[in-house]
Amino acid sequence: MTEPGFTTSISKMTGFYVVGMTVTGKDYFALEDLPQNIANELRSAVGDFQLETTPENINFGTAAKPIMVDIDLRNDRQITITFRNTAKELASVTFVNEPGADAAFFAGMRAYPPAVDVYQTAIRSGTTEELEKTTAARREIHDECTRLLRKKLAPAVCIDKQAARRLFTIIALVR
User: Fold this and answer.
1) pTM of this prediction exceeds 0.70
2) For residue 36, what are the CA distances in angstroms to 31, 39, 103, 120?
């Protein structure tokens, strides 16, 4: 059983396929409380996820209706992602942080925010070589965790690489 937490609506939009996203965590957070570079990256990922996601790149095998995405981070050892529309739950998957289970996904989530920091620093003050190196490291984390996310979702949801990348970014930054 997970302990009670706070639910934060990080986005509500109308006229899109993804009309909202909520994150439930152990502690309350607001975008204003996050470091600016992380908050900016999160805003960008959420916006891109909503603007670019269509029934073609997240498909449940049913008629397309607007969907909500709920991310539950209340338990330190697991993450649950639920896709639903107003009528019903469409799919739900849980990542468990245990050896042999989803440990690589959790390791990527821990590595991603520091990679964003290094990348942002390189953009501001680094050389082209530093920027290329940090971009490659960040992309490697992103690609592996995107692959793991798509694999985990595959039995229930057909999600394309770009939508999965955005979803991973959101999860890693709010975790």
Assistant:
1) yes
2) 9, 5, 28, 11
